[in-house]
Design goal:
By secondary structure, the protein is α+β, with helices and mostly antiparallel strands. Helix content is 40%, strand content 14%.
Length: 276
Protein backbone atom coordinates (compact mmCIF):
# COMPACT_ATOMS: atom_id res chain seq x y z
CA UNK A 1 0.00 0.00 0.00
CA UNK A 2 1.32 3.49 -0.79
CA UNK A 3 2.12 5.97 1.97
CA UNK A 4 0.41 9.30 1.36
CA UNK A 5 1.69 11.44 4.19
CA UNK A 6 4.11 11.62 7.08
CA UNK A 7 2.39 13.66 9.74
CA UNK A 8 5.59 15.49 10.68
CA UNK A 9 6.06 16.79 7.13
CA UNK A 10 4.25 19.94 8.20
CA UNK A 11 6.91 20.53 10.86
CA UNK A 12 9.50 22.35 8.76
CA UNK A 13 11.83 25.21 9.58
CA UNK A 14 9.88 27.33 7.07
CA UNK A 15 6.75 26.92 9.19
CA UNK A 16 8.35 28.50 12.28
CA UNK A 17 6.83 31.83 13.29
CA UNK A 18 9.16 32.97 16.06
CA UNK A 19 8.34 36.27 17.70
CA UNK A 20 10.69 39.04 18.77
CA UNK A 21 10.06 37.87 22.32
CA UNK A 22 9.25 34.17 22.82
CA UNK A 23 8.52 32.23 26.02
CA UNK A 24 11.81 31.09 27.63
CA UNK A 25 11.18 27.38 26.93
CA UNK A 26 10.70 28.09 23.22
CA UNK A 27 13.95 30.06 23.17
CA UNK A 28 15.62 27.05 24.79
CA UNK A 29 14.11 24.71 22.19
CA UNK A 30 15.48 26.95 19.44
CA UNK A 31 18.93 26.79 21.04
CA UNK A 32 18.72 22.99 21.31
CA UNK A 33 17.86 22.76 17.62
CA UNK A 34 20.74 25.02 16.57
CA UNK A 35 23.43 23.37 18.67
CA UNK A 36 22.49 19.68 18.69
CA UNK A 37 25.39 17.36 17.76
CA UNK A 38 26.20 13.64 18.16
CA UNK A 39 27.63 13.90 21.66
CA UNK A 40 24.61 15.75 23.07
CA UNK A 41 21.86 14.43 20.78
CA UNK A 42 20.27 12.06 23.32
CA UNK A 43 20.32 14.67 26.09
CA UNK A 44 18.81 17.34 23.81
CA UNK A 45 16.19 14.85 22.62
CA UNK A 46 15.04 14.23 26.20
CA UNK A 47 15.12 17.96 26.96
CA UNK A 48 12.99 18.80 23.94
CA UNK A 49 10.29 16.26 24.90
CA UNK A 50 10.22 17.59 28.46
CA UNK A 51 10.01 21.18 27.18
CA UNK A 52 7.15 20.29 24.85
CA UNK A 53 5.17 18.67 27.68
CA UNK A 54 5.66 21.78 29.82
CA UNK A 55 4.66 24.08 26.96
CA UNK A 56 1.50 22.06 26.30
CA UNK A 57 0.57 22.52 29.95
CA UNK A 58 1.18 26.27 29.65
CA UNK A 59 -1.01 26.36 26.52
CA UNK A 60 -3.83 24.48 28.24
CA UNK A 61 -3.67 26.98 31.12
CA UNK A 62 -3.76 29.94 28.73
CA UNK A 63 -0.23 31.23 29.37
CA UNK A 64 0.99 30.84 25.78
CA UNK A 65 -0.92 31.33 22.52
CA UNK A 66 -1.50 29.17 19.42
CA UNK A 67 1.58 30.52 17.63
CA UNK A 68 3.73 29.54 20.61
CA UNK A 69 2.20 26.06 20.62
CA UNK A 70 2.89 25.66 16.90
CA UNK A 71 6.50 26.78 17.34
CA UNK A 72 6.89 24.34 20.26
CA UNK A 73 5.69 21.37 18.21
CA UNK A 74 7.73 22.31 15.14
CA UNK A 75 10.98 22.77 17.05
CA UNK A 76 10.52 19.55 19.03
CA UNK A 77 9.88 17.49 15.92
CA UNK A 78 12.84 19.09 14.15
CA UNK A 79 15.06 18.16 17.12
CA UNK A 80 13.70 14.59 17.15
CA UNK A 81 14.36 14.22 13.43
CA UNK A 82 17.88 15.59 13.78
CA UNK A 83 18.66 13.46 16.85
CA UNK A 84 17.57 10.25 15.12
CA UNK A 85 19.90 10.98 12.20
CA UNK A 86 22.80 11.75 14.54
CA UNK A 87 22.22 8.61 16.63
CA UNK A 88 21.24 6.16 13.89
CA UNK A 89 24.57 4.27 13.93
CA UNK A 90 24.79 4.10 17.73
CA UNK A 91 23.19 1.25 19.75
CA UNK A 92 21.58 3.55 22.26
CA UNK A 93 19.39 1.47 24.60
CA UNK A 94 17.81 4.56 26.08
CA UNK A 95 16.71 5.69 22.63
CA UNK A 96 14.87 2.41 22.12
CA UNK A 97 12.98 2.94 25.36
CA UNK A 98 11.42 6.22 24.18
CA UNK A 99 10.54 5.21 20.62
CA UNK A 100 6.82 5.46 21.38
CA UNK A 101 7.29 9.13 22.30
CA UNK A 102 9.16 10.03 19.10
CA UNK A 103 7.25 7.90 16.61
CA UNK A 104 6.30 9.13 13.16
CA UNK A 105 2.73 8.73 11.94
CA UNK A 106 2.36 7.35 8.40
CA UNK A 107 -0.93 7.83 6.53
CA UNK A 108 -1.40 4.74 4.33
CA UNK A 109 -3.85 4.25 1.45
CA UNK A 110 -5.77 1.29 2.87
CA UNK A 111 -8.51 0.34 5.33
CA UNK A 112 -7.58 -1.70 8.40
CA UNK A 113 -11.20 -2.81 8.75
CA UNK A 114 -11.29 -4.15 5.19
CA UNK A 115 -7.78 -5.57 4.76
CA UNK A 116 -6.70 -6.43 8.33
CA UNK A 117 -9.93 -7.05 10.27
CA UNK A 118 -8.22 -9.47 12.68
CA UNK A 119 -5.87 -6.70 13.77
CA UNK A 120 -8.84 -4.48 14.60
CA UNK A 121 -10.94 -7.24 16.17
CA UNK A 122 -8.32 -9.47 17.83
CA UNK A 123 -5.11 -7.38 17.88
CA UNK A 124 -3.46 -10.06 15.73
CA UNK A 125 0.04 -9.11 14.64
CA UNK A 126 0.74 -9.02 10.89
CA UNK A 127 4.27 -8.58 9.51
CA UNK A 128 4.76 -5.16 7.91
CA UNK A 129 7.83 -3.92 6.06
CA UNK A 130 8.78 -1.25 3.55
CA UNK A 131 8.93 -2.24 -0.11
CA UNK A 132 11.03 0.81 -0.94
CA UNK A 133 14.56 1.87 0.10
CA UNK A 134 15.52 -1.70 0.96
CA UNK A 135 19.23 -0.81 0.84
CA UNK A 136 18.79 1.84 3.57
CA UNK A 137 18.27 1.15 7.25
CA UNK A 138 14.89 2.46 8.53
CA UNK A 139 15.28 4.63 11.63
CA UNK A 140 11.82 6.10 12.39
CA UNK A 141 9.61 4.31 14.87
CA UNK A 142 6.27 4.21 13.08
CA UNK A 143 2.56 4.03 13.69
CA UNK A 144 0.26 3.49 10.70
CA UNK A 145 -3.01 5.31 10.08
CA UNK A 146 -5.52 4.26 7.43
CA UNK A 147 -7.69 6.60 5.33
CA UNK A 148 -11.02 5.75 6.98
CA UNK A 149 -12.76 8.24 9.27
CA UNK A 150 -12.73 5.75 12.18
CA UNK A 151 -10.46 6.46 15.15
CA UNK A 152 -9.67 2.73 15.41
CA UNK A 153 -8.01 2.78 12.00
CA UNK A 154 -4.51 2.87 13.48
CA UNK A 155 -1.67 0.42 14.09
CA UNK A 156 0.18 1.81 17.11
CA UNK A 157 3.92 1.54 17.60
CA UNK A 158 4.53 -1.53 19.74
CA UNK A 159 7.80 -1.84 21.69
CA UNK A 160 7.41 -5.65 21.69
CA UNK A 161 6.93 -5.78 17.89
CA UNK A 162 8.53 -2.50 16.78
CA UNK A 163 8.08 -1.19 13.25
CA UNK A 164 10.78 1.10 11.89
CA UNK A 165 10.35 2.92 8.58
CA UNK A 166 12.25 5.55 6.60
CA UNK A 167 12.08 9.31 6.66
CA UNK A 168 11.01 10.19 3.12
CA UNK A 169 10.05 13.27 1.16
CA UNK A 170 6.84 12.14 -0.51
CA UNK A 171 6.94 15.14 -2.85
CA UNK A 172 10.11 13.67 -4.33
CA UNK A 173 9.62 9.90 -4.14
CA UNK A 174 7.00 7.21 -3.61
CA UNK A 175 7.05 4.94 -0.57
CA UNK A 176 5.24 1.60 -0.32
CA UNK A 177 4.55 -0.80 2.55
CA UNK A 178 3.86 -4.51 2.39
CA UNK A 179 1.45 -6.32 4.75
CA UNK A 180 2.08 -10.07 4.92
CA UNK A 181 0.30 -13.27 6.00
CA UNK A 182 -3.10 -11.75 5.34
CA UNK A 183 -4.46 -14.08 2.66
CA UNK A 184 -8.02 -14.79 1.58
CA UNK A 185 -9.24 -15.17 5.17
CA UNK A 186 -8.80 -11.46 5.91
CA UNK A 187 -10.40 -10.54 2.58
CA UNK A 188 -13.49 -12.63 3.36
CA UNK A 189 -13.85 -11.01 6.79
CA UNK A 190 -13.66 -7.47 5.38
CA UNK A 191 -17.03 -5.75 5.82
CA UNK A 192 -16.98 -2.88 3.28
CA UNK A 193 -16.46 -0.46 6.16
CA UNK A 194 -16.74 3.17 4.97
CA UNK A 195 -17.60 1.77 1.49
CA UNK A 196 -14.12 0.28 1.06
CA UNK A 197 -13.94 -3.12 -0.55
CA UNK A 198 -10.98 -5.35 -1.30
CA UNK A 199 -8.16 -3.40 -3.01
CA UNK A 200 -7.07 -4.15 -6.54
CA UNK A 201 -5.16 -7.45 -6.46
CA UNK A 202 -2.49 -8.87 -8.73
CA UNK A 203 -1.35 -12.47 -9.14
CA UNK A 204 2.40 -12.41 -9.77
CA UNK A 205 4.53 -15.32 -10.96
CA UNK A 206 8.28 -15.30 -10.23
CA UNK A 207 10.86 -17.37 -12.10
CA UNK A 208 14.55 -17.26 -13.03
CA UNK A 209 13.91 -14.54 -15.62
CA UNK A 210 12.13 -12.20 -13.23
CA UNK A 211 8.41 -11.76 -12.62
CA UNK A 212 5.22 -11.32 -14.59
CA UNK A 213 1.68 -10.25 -13.70
CA UNK A 214 -0.62 -13.15 -14.56
CA UNK A 215 -3.91 -11.64 -13.43
CA UNK A 216 -5.16 -8.22 -12.29
CA UNK A 217 -8.50 -7.99 -10.46
CA UNK A 218 -9.68 -4.44 -9.94
CA UNK A 219 -11.37 -3.24 -6.77
CA UNK A 220 -15.16 -2.91 -6.89
CA UNK A 221 -16.50 0.56 -7.75
CA UNK A 222 -18.57 2.50 -5.23
CA UNK A 223 -21.75 2.10 -7.27
CA UNK A 224 -21.50 -1.69 -6.97
CA UNK A 225 -20.90 -1.52 -3.22
CA UNK A 226 -23.94 0.70 -2.77
CA UNK A 227 -26.01 -1.81 -4.74
CA UNK A 228 -24.75 -4.64 -2.51
CA UNK A 229 -25.99 -2.58 0.45
CA UNK A 230 -29.48 -2.46 -1.14
CA UNK A 231 -29.27 1.05 -2.54
CA UNK A 232 -30.61 1.58 -6.06
CA UNK A 233 -27.79 2.94 -8.26
CA UNK A 234 -30.21 4.46 -10.77
CA UNK A 235 -32.07 6.30 -8.01
CA UNK A 236 -28.80 7.68 -6.66
CA UNK A 237 -27.65 8.91 -10.07
CA UNK A 238 -31.05 10.44 -10.89
CA UNK A 239 -31.17 12.25 -7.55
CA UNK A 240 -27.66 13.61 -8.07
CA UNK A 241 -28.60 14.84 -11.53
CA UNK A 242 -31.82 16.41 -10.27
CA UNK A 243 -30.12 18.24 -7.38
CA UNK A 244 -27.37 19.56 -9.62
CA UNK A 245 -29.74 20.69 -12.36
CA UNK A 246 -31.96 22.49 -9.84
CA UNK A 247 -29.10 24.46 -8.33
CA UNK A 248 -29.35 28.23 -8.86
CA UNK A 249 -25.77 28.85 -7.78
CA UNK A 250 -23.97 27.41 -10.83
CA UNK A 251 -24.32 27.82 -14.58
CA UNK A 252 -25.25 25.09 -17.06
CA UNK A 253 -21.66 24.30 -18.06
CA UNK A 254 -20.58 23.92 -14.42
CA UNK A 255 -23.62 21.71 -13.71
CA UNK A 256 -22.61 19.36 -16.50
CA UNK A 257 -19.01 19.21 -15.31
CA UNK A 258 -19.99 18.53 -11.70
CA UNK A 259 -22.34 15.73 -12.71
CA UNK A 260 -19.69 14.20 -14.97
CA UNK A 261 -17.22 14.17 -12.10
CA UNK A 262 -19.72 12.78 -9.61
CA UNK A 263 -20.77 10.00 -11.97
CA UNK A 264 -17.12 9.18 -12.65
CA UNK A 265 -16.44 9.04 -8.91
CA UNK A 266 -19.26 6.54 -8.37
CA UNK A 267 -17.63 4.24 -10.90
CA UNK A 268 -14.24 4.33 -9.14
CA UNK A 269 -13.24 2.55 -5.95
CA UNK A 270 -13.06 4.43 -2.66
CA UNK A 271 -9.28 4.41 -2.29
CA UNK A 272 -7.31 7.60 -2.84
CA UNK A 273 -5.63 8.16 -6.17
CA UNK A 274 -2.09 9.25 -6.92
CA UNK A 275 -1.05 11.12 -10.04
CA UNK A 276 2.57 11.35 -11.23
Amino acid sequence: APVFELFSEEYSIKALRLKEQNPPLIEELHELYKFIKPENALEYLHDSIDHLNSLMTLFNLGYIDLTDRSNSEILTHLIIRKAIVLLKNKPVRELLQIQDKIQEKYLVNFSIFQSLPDFWGLAQHFPVMPLSKLDTMPTRSASLWDITCDSDGEIDFDNKNPLFLHSVDLDEEEYFLGFFKVGAYQEVLGMKHNLFTRPTTATIAIDEEGYRIEELVKSDPLIDILEDLNYNPLTIQNRLLENIQNSVHIDAQTRAEIYRRMESFLHENGYLKTFN
